[in-house]
Write a structure and sequence with these properties.
- With 256 residues, the protein is an alpha/beta fold.
- It has 4 helices and 15 strands.
- A 3-stranded mixed β-sheet has the order 2-1-15, covered by helices on one side.
- The model has no long low-confidence stretch (mean pLDDT 97).
């Protein structure tokens, strides 16, 4: 069964880490309502949502994608790229343990799930401020046993690789190709973000549908023009915390 692990928005969200956008006031209750709508949409699309309690002292803890990578074979727990965020991993590992055996990337390796784009048996991993060469090397060692191939992708214009590029399905990528070394991706078709919407490269594919931010209507139209079914979602308050759509859930198949 499709399963989604999420976490409630932290009361300290206003103190979140920011790298590529300016800080603006965040309406906490509106952010929580938008996150609840995100969880409700995942349920509507057939996922069993496991919503973990908030971590009050960890502002970025709703971004459950970063501390873990969940594969069919195992879950990999990651040391995140900032000291304060490394505390998020323990409770997430406990939540995943009933579903997967666990492996660990170890410090001084640093790796965040937002930098890990998996397409079938291929990993494309962003080399960023948050994921370093040692973290990527350890991921390659762990996953090669299961037949995965890994390509490192330097990223320059945004926080994570998946801030700039995500997989829509049907061998098609959505991306802002100015922000990463896009030629590392061979054999894919592209939907380029609209030039007026540079942050529109993050979309969440769930089954045959694409969940996409309502704040990027021009890029949304480009995705639909490629024949994809799009579910539009307002995450405008969450975007003030440098949020995309992939970062707020871990999606995987689990036994009923």
């Amino acid at each position: 069964m499709l399963t989604a692990i999420t976490r409630k928005v932290s009361s300290s969200l206003a103190n979140c880490e920011l790298s590529f956008i300016e800080r603006k006031p965040i309406d906490l209750e509106r952010a929580r309502a938008q996150h609840h709508a995100y969880e409700a949409l995942l349920e509507k699309m057939g996922a069993k949502v496991i919503s973990l309690p908030e971590e009050r002292d960890l502002p970025d803890s709703m971004f459950v994608e970063d501390p873990a990578i969940v594969l069919d074979e195992l879950a990999i727990i990651c040391p995140l790229g900032t000291d304060i965020r490394r505390k998020e991993a323990a409770s997430l590992a406990a939540a995943l343990e009933p579903y997967r055996k666990l492996a660990h990337v170890k410090f001084p390796g640093m790796l965040e799930g937002g930098d890990v784009l998996r397409i079938g048996k291929k990993f494309f991993v962003g080399l960023t401020q948050r994921s370093n060469a040692e973290g990527i090397r350890q991921l390659a060692v762990i996953t090669e046993h299961y037949g995965y191939d890994l390509t490192a992708v330097p990223v320059t214009g945004c926080l994570h690789l998946k801030s700039a590029v995500t997989y829509l399905g049907r061998d098609t990528l959505l991306g802002n190709r100015a922000w990463f070394h896009w030629k590392r991706f061979e054999g894919f078709d592209w939907v380029d973000v609209d030039p007026e919407e540079p942050h529109a490269g993050n979309a969440l594919a769930v089954g045959e549908s694409i969940v996409f931010p309502a704040s990027f209507p021009k890029t949304l139209a480009r995705i639909e023009a490629k024949g994809f079914r799009v579910e539009s979602l307002d995450i405008s308050e969450l975007q003030k915390a440098e949020s995309g759509l992939t970062c707020s859930s871990l999606l995987f198949d689990a036994a009923c």
